[in-house]
Design brief:
The complex is a heterotetramer, with 2 copies of chain A, 1 copy of chain B and 1 copy of chain C.
Chain A lengths: L6 H33 L6 H10 L1 H15 L7 H17 L6 H28 L5 H20 L3 E3 L3 H7 L1 H4 L1 E2 L2 E2 H19 L1 H11 L1 H6 L4 H27 L1 E3 L6 H11 L11 H20 L8 H22 L1
Antiparallel strand pairs in A: 1-4, 2-3
Helix pairs in contact in A: 1-14, 1-15, 3-9, 3-10, 3-12, 3-13, 3-14, 4-5, 4-6, 4-12, 5-7, 5-12, 9-10, 10-12, 13-14, 14-15
Chain B lengths: L13 E12 L2 E12 L3 E6 L5 H8 L7 E6 L2 E3 L4 H6 L2 E4 L11 H5 L6 E2 L2 E2 L1 H14 L15 H13 L5 E5 L7 H16 L3 E5 L3 H7 L2 E6 L2 E7 L5 H9 L18 E10 L3 E9 L3 E6 L5 H8 L6 E6 L2 E3 L4 H6 L2 E4 L3 H5 L6 H6 L7 E2 L2 E2 L1 H14 L16 H13 L5 E5 L7 H16 L3 E5 L3 H7 L2 E6 L2 E7 L5 H9 L8
Parallel strand pairs in B: 3-10, 3-11, 6-9, 9-10, 15-22, 15-23, 18-21, 21-22
Antiparallel strand pairs in B: 1-2, 1-4, 4-5, 7-8, 11-12, 13-14, 13-16, 16-17, 19-20, 23-24
Helix pairs in contact in B: 4-5, 7-8
Chain C lengths: L3 E8 L4 H20 L3 E8 L2 H14 L3 E4 L4 H13 L3 E5 L13 E4 L2 H15 L4 E6 L4 H14 L5 E7 L4 H14 L5 E3 L3 H14 L6 E3 L5 H8 L8 E2 L5 H14 L6 E4 L4 E2 L15
Parallel strand pairs in C: 1-2, 1-3, 3-4, 4-5, 5-11, 6-7, 6-8, 8-9
Antiparallel strand pairs in C: 10-12
Helix pairs in contact in C: 1-9, 2-3, 4-5, 6-7
Bound molecules: adenosine-5'-triphosphate (2 copies) and magnesium ion (MG) (2 copies).
Chain lengths: 334, 510, 293, 334
């Protein structure tokens, strides 16, 4: 009961701080939109922006899963390879002609993808928690395994969806839209909303944050740390499967190099979105903003005519660093 | 070894008992053949020197550690606790000596962690915030349940931790030095909570180094020494000095050394209009050569932050003169070079590398002294460790232990030894005896007085009023980030300090 | 006359051959814009199929009249290309054909011949050293590589040429060096190495030289980098031939597309370039010292 | 000092623990050597083993630098791209014909590489410490920058050392040997010895460990955390330059893809060697063992005839995971 007057200014300060931290990625996003409007006249058209959002869908959805893993203090480098693996298996399944009705086929393939995604995520989680191996190394190893299996499945070539009926029925999942909003964009927001609910409004989400914040505390509180960790990888697996769901109708084909570097993109999206790599803080909507940011950088680079294409990579790297600096300076001022 | 068993008083039923408990860490037996019973409705204090094995015993009772030998009974039945959660289900909760909270979660989220209140699929944050606010208020504290724990002071965290433990239905509440980081006001509130718990029929086990507190609160007292149980007695009839004698095995008659306060204008450190944004405003004070200056205040008064601002550990504005020369420090390295050292109140988070060996910790700040050519002189490091162990009476059976394996009090001594290697002229000690037994306290007070006698100056920041009064020449009282006033001589008494610290006249205070 | 824009989408310069593609695309773009004052050519590079699909979309956003595309990987890009085609734009596909390569995908197809690249190399080896024991350093596990392997197998069919091993060198000099070093440890006798890519030959030659092994008679690469062509020209014993797979084909496609837009020359159809065997005699014709490749 | 008789068993126990933890990677290495001897008769020849050790030199030397960065609690994903960048600049310099004497030219190029390496490392360090950006993201951005600059320098093609005199004098640095031990192998051991000395026997090394172990404690002990962190990146830059020194004479050329994935290999070597990614523990010699382990896995895969080339990646990934499991189980038993 020391004194109530002192609490108030302190609390207000705190609030301002929390807000800015969460808002920073959106400010970075807004700045990029302004920058983009200088790059090309067509940049700020609904068409272009919807294109960009649509194609950021896989990374965004994978990154939403990564938000859970990272919030719990983990890391998953295998998601890119896992995408290739799951998508390859699904296409092979749809090529198998076991089911005559194309719609049933697509639904069965969807179920299969989700099942494989969960199995892969579970494997990652168990290798890490039961094997007690650092997530970085464990998932790097799993990345080799998924990638290798994909190469083997494709026998070095491409795996292409052959059945035109299946293709026809599946295609709108990427190219279709609801009231003008492409399905993949809807998928991002639905996934993010569910994820935000789980992370912020359920006890499981609370436990995820606790495990990432201080493992010992979580353990003493009766939380099964290994279970929670494993579950985050399972969620990651599900999200990867979700990404595959949207990915397949777009290109209808996979190769051994599908999804290379996606793990780094996903992690970048998460971190640019304000989630700390050390764990304990997770920002689902920030992650979505992060994924948009990455894709918009690429879009601007492609629309502008001033930059040598040899330097694209350099400028993308520089913009990511600048985006982080903007975030940091915003946060510090508060 | 004297082992006087007291006949159980009729109104207290036995709840739990330990029989022949022993615990071995890496070949060293730190607990030997301990048998004790705990009765419902009693407050049972455990006292002993640092490293006597108190925390270890309590951890065994709460299921955090398995005993190497011996057994536990609850309600007369032998049980094997599989872990803290199992113990909790049986109504046994432990409030740790160390802070165990998730720094990224809010107060309410921590209090309800692992036992969230749910509403359908989702958690009911409203209910939990309300519950947490109430739980904290019951402890006499005022902490916003939506504050992130990482932003709380040590004392506030301690209170949150207690609130969390008390939320479970409990039959035995175990407190490991709950008052060590609390100021008198919070202490009083907590002591009241503790006696309420026992009145409600649950048992309380309780460690404290504050013997007068033990005297007023405990029904029975168990004394540990070197891992052995010395005695269990009714508290009535045991005076603090008797307790000290039982603990240490010798007479402890005079806790505070004599020290003659220096006078005059020989100021070594002058601080003017110091601002530590968010914590302290416009602080000005002067420190004489050979003086021991106390800093009093309530939890959150900003003393720690002011000191950290002065030595360059936090952004701060203001004038500092060292031996009349203006100085400013951008980091702790610079202030150390100038002869000022600061000992953090947070010895685990900011004082010691818990995962490193004692020697590495000891020499970390003064590493330059151990460099020969370009190489570290490991022999000299080892010699320094031997010397520090002897000089500061660090109780360790093994010099290869990691700092985190020392008992709390011995960690504090190691931290003091570490900073003293720098041979500073001005020493700022924050909560110097937090969690330290009475025998060692005496040593630390002696040490502080010796420093002053050698012409060095010491600033003592402490929440323990008797200690401040006993050791300081002069006391500055802070309230809400501002220096309220300064007391010395006969004005240095608890009443006047509390008035200054709270800004409330004694008549108004409830 | 109206202003017209040609969008050119090609792989990023991530190894020698693709670098050549970028070089020639830029060279021809500049040349065409001088020739046709009303023509604007936009060249965009992409590292993988997914980003190339994005790039195609972005070119469309910018507004183009024709697309010249050399896909990083053809099958995954079919939908993206069809999208453009559906809007009535002229589409020229270069080099890499999807499994269904017909008019619904493109108007013009200009191609090197991947199976032929393998076949020509196989035939040469079968003819020169009919009973050779050959090790193969493959590229990356993607379809182009597979087509070349199949072509090679066809080329040596019926001869006594024996394939000891095929491993991936990832079209990368360092990896090829490693693979070759280990081949040399693994096999006491190797007659011929086929690497199907000149970049990898650089690493292979170093590994052979280091091992001081004399059993290897020669190495066959592919694509026609200036360094390897130079070696053929100079009569290097280890590199007697090279199989052409000219990155300049992208320029050919661009020129044809410009002609279609401005000169109303009908250029629909398929143009397949030979996988020419470069020997000491004809090497000088294929040596471009200024190309980065 | 309560009881002296009990000291001995405690210490012995502790030693056993420390030893096994440090020894585990070497045991894994020994197991791999046994495994390899089944793969091919020539595996255990001096020639093959020296080949493998020689070609592991770049990764090993880069990984030794990474040991410092990781011990201090950092991470550097830019090292592969940095290698390509430094090597490209050095080759361009040697192609410039500014210095007539080839030996002087090589020495000047060496000095240049070390200088650029330091500059790159310093840049990384400052972006992280001054910019307060997570090392993962900061160095990912820098990776894009170095890689982009390299692509631009090479205009997408190769940068090849042209001067035959320079080549002749430089070549032995990779291909030569001293009493039968190839120079690159010597370089590994010399670098590791110096690194071990710095990390374990100097006050700077102690500070590195302290910063990685607990940043606050280091700061309160008067250590300049930012300075120490930056210095570790500088050391990493120097090590990358050292790797370039050996890399250039091997193929005498670089391309835009030189050094891709080396960052992951280096980090894997460090972790397989027993250094914890969370910081505070660094094992220089373990890192060297880790680098050998990675290279030997690749070597065994190529020498064996039982595995489809499509599955190599999968098996490599699996072996890395198994190696970590072996390590963990060894450590736990103690
Ligand atoms: N994990 C451990 N490994 C080795 N020794 C340990 C470990 N934990 C405690 N010890 C040793 O056990 C002894 C008793 O420690 P304990 O923490 O129980 O003392 P304590 O009575 O609570 O002291 P304090 O009053 O200082 O908190 C000490 O000598 C300590 O060094
Ligand atoms: N990291 C932080 N962020 C924001 N506020 C903080 C932080 N740490 C502490 N505070 C607040 O700063 C104020 C002063 O801190 P603190 O309680 O440490 O002061 P003190 O006088 O040293 O008290 P103590 O008796 O605990 O040492 C308190 O209101 C506390 O809640
Ligand atoms: Mg204790
Ligand atoms: Mg304080």
């Amino acid at each position: 009961m020391t004194d109530t007057t002192t609490t108030t200014p302190q609390r207000r300060n705190l609030w301002r701080d929390v807000d800015l931290r969460a808002v920073a990625p959106f400010i970075a996003l807004a700045l990029l939109l302004v920058l983009g409007s200088f790059a090309h006249d067509n940049f700020l058209t609904a068409n272009n922006l919807l294109n960009v959002m649509t194609r950021s869908a896989y990374i965004a959805i994978i990154a939403i899963g990564a938000t859970f893993v990272i919030t719990a203090g983990g890391l998953d480098l295998s998601v890119g390879a896992m995408t290739a693996f799951i998508a390859s298996l699904a296409i092979m399944f749809m090529n198998s002609d076991g089911i005559a009705n194309p719609l049933t086929m697509v639904l069965a393939a969807t179920a299969l993808m989700l099942a494989i995604g969960m199995a892969c995520g579970l494997t990652n989680g168990l290798v890490i928690t039961l094997g007690k191996i650092e997530p970085f190394i464990a998932t790097l190893g799993m990345m080799g395994i998924y990638r290798g299996l994909t190469t083997w499945l494709s026998q070095g070539g491409a795996i292409t969806l052959r059945n035109p009926d299946v293709q026809a029925i599946y295609r709108p999942v990427y190219f279709g839209n609801l009231f003008g909003i492409p399905y993949p964009v809807l998928a991002i927001f639905v996934t993010a909303a569910i994820a935000a609910f789980i992370l912020y409004r359920t006890s499981f989400g609370r436990h995820v944050i606790a495990v990432g914040s201080n493992e010992d505390v979580a353990r003493y509180s009766g939380i099964s740390v290994a279970r929670v960790r494993t579950m985050t990888y399972l969620i990651q697996g599900l999200c990867v499967a979700g990404a595959c769901l949207i990915y397949i109708p777009r290109l209808s084909s996979t190769t051994a190099t599908t999804g290379t570097m996606w793990e780094l993109n996903a992690i970048t999206a998460v971190v640019v979105g304000g989630t700390a790599l050390r764990g304990g803080v997770g920002r689902v909507w920030g992650t979505v903003a992060g994924a948009f940011i990455l894709e918009i950088i690429g879009n601007i680079m492609l629309l502008t005519t001033y930059v040598s294409e040899y330097l694209l990579g350099a400028i993308q790297g520089a913009i990511v660093i600048v985006a982080m600096l903007v975030q940091r300076s915003l946060t510090r001022k508060s | 070894m004297t082992m006087s068993v007291v006949s159980p008083s009729q109104d207290h039923k036995g709840f739990m008992a330990g029989h022949g408990l022993a615990k071995t860490f890496g070949g060293v037996e730190v607990l030997k053949d301990i048998s004790l019973d705990i009765r419902s409705g009693e407050v049972h204090a455990i006292i002993g020197e640092n490293g006597a094995g108190k925390s270890t015993l309590l951890k065994i009772l709460a299921g955090h550690l398995a005993p190497t030998r011996g057994s536990l009974t609850i309600d007369g039945e032998t049980v094997a606790l599989s872990g803290p959660v199992d113990a909790e289900h049986r109504g046994i909760v432990l409030v740790h000596q160390e802070i165990l909270l998730a720094p990224d979660l809010t107060v309410a989220q921590n209090i309800y962690l692992g036992r969230e209140i749910k509403k359908g699929l989702s958690v009911d944050d409203k209910a939990m915030n309300a519950g947490a606010a109430k739980a904290v208020r019951n402890l006499g504290a005022n902490i916003d349940p939506k504050t992130v724990v990482g932003r709380l002071s040590i004392a506030q965290r301690q209170l949150v931790q207690i609130a969390r433990a008390l939320l479970v239905p409990h039959r035995l509440v175990i407190f490991d030095e709950p008052t060590a980081s609390l100021t008198p006001i919070e202490t009083d509130a907590l002591l009241k909570v503790i006696s309420d718990i026992s009145k409600s029929g649950a048992a309380v086990l309780y460690i404290s180094h504050r013997l007068p507190e033990v005297k007023t609160l405990a029904d029975r007292v168990t004394v540990l020494r070197d891992g052995k149980l010395v005695t269990t007695r009714e508290a009535a009839g045991l005076e603090p000095l008797d307790m000290a004698q039982l603990m240490v095995g010798r007479d402890v008659s005079k806790l505070y050394p004599d020290h003659v306060a220096p006078e005059g204008e020989d100021y070594v450190l002058e601080v003017e209009n110091m601002d530590v944004p968010g914590y302290a405003r416009n602080a000005s004070f002067k420190l004489r050569r050979g003086e021991i200056l106390g800093f009093a205040g309530l939890v959150g008064a900003g003393r720690t932050e002011l000191m950290e601002g002065i030595v360059g550990l936090r952004p701060a504005k203001g004038k500092i003169r060292l031996n009349r020369r203006p100085v400013s420090f951008a980091n702790a390295g610079q202030s150390m070079k100038a002869g000022i050292v600061y000992l953090s109140e947070d010895r685990k988070g900011k004082g010691l590398l818990l995962q490193e060996a004692l020697g590495v910790n000891l020499t970390l700040a003064g590493l330059k002294k151990f460099v020969r050519g370009i190489m570290l002189d490991r022999k000299a490091e080892r010699a320094a460790l031997d010397q520090a162990i002897a000089e500061f009476d660090i109780r360790t059976r093994n010099k290869d232990l990691l700092a985190g394996q020392l008992s709390g009090g011995n960690q504090q001594k190691l931290l003091i030894a570490k900073m003293m290697l720098l041979k500073p002229n001005i020493v700022i000690i924050d909560e110097p005896t937090r969690g330290i037994d009475i025998g060692t306290k005496e040593q630390i007070y002696m040490f502080i007085a010796d420093l002053a006698r050698q012409g060095k100056s010491v600033i003592v920041v402490s929440s323990e009023m008797p200690e401040l009064i006993g050791v300081s020449d002069r006391i500055i009282v802070m309230r809400e980030g501002v220096i309220a006033d300064e007391v010395s001589g006969k004005h240095m008494n608890e009443r006047e300090i509390v008035v200054l610290a709270t800004g409330v006249k004694p008549s108004e205070a409830a | 006359q109206d202003k017209k824009t040609i969008g050119v989408s090609i792989p990023a310069a991530d190894h020698g051959w693709t670098a050549g593609v970028v070089f020639h695309a830029e060279r021809v773009a500049k040349k065409l814009m001088e020739e046709y004052p009303n023509l604007n050519v936009v060249v965009k590079t992409s590292p993988d199929p997914a980003s190339q699909a994005n790039a195609v979309q972005d070119l469309e956003t910018q507004g183009i009249d024709a697309l010249v595309i050399l896909p990083t990987d053809p099958d995954p890009l079919v939908s993206a290309i069809k999208e453009i085609k559906a809007k009535g734009k002229f589409v020229a596909l270069v080099d890499r054909a999807p499994s269904s390569n017909d008019d619904s995908v493109r108007d013009l197809y200009v191609a090197g011949n991947n199976p032929a690249l393998g076949e020509v190399a196989g035939k040469y080896i079968a003819a020169t050293t009919p009973n050779a024991e050959v090790v193969i350093v493959r590229g990356m596990p993607i379809p182009i590589d597979q087509q070349r392997q199949d072509g090679f197998d066809k080329g040596i069919a019926g001869s006594g040429v024996k394939i000891l091993d095929r491993q991936f060198g990832n079209w990368n000099r360092d990896d090829a060096f490693k693979v070759m070093q280990d081949y040399l440890t693994k096999y006491p006798k190797i007659d011929v190495v086929w690497a199907q890519d000149d970049d990898m030959v650089v690493g292979i030659l170093e590994a052979i030289e280091q091992a001081k092994r004399t059993d290897i008679q020669y190495v066959v690469g592919g694509a026609g980098s200036k360094d390897m062509i130079k070696k053929v020209m100079d009569g290097d014993k280890m590199v007697p031939v090279d199989v052409l797979y000219p990155p300049a084909m992208v320029g050919t496609a661009m020129e044809l597309t410009a002609a279609q837009l401005f000169d109303q020359v009908p250029v629909h159809g398929t143009y397949i370039l030979d996988a020419t065997l470069v020997t000491k005699d004809n090497a000088a014709n294929y040596h471009f010292p200024d190309s980065p490749f």
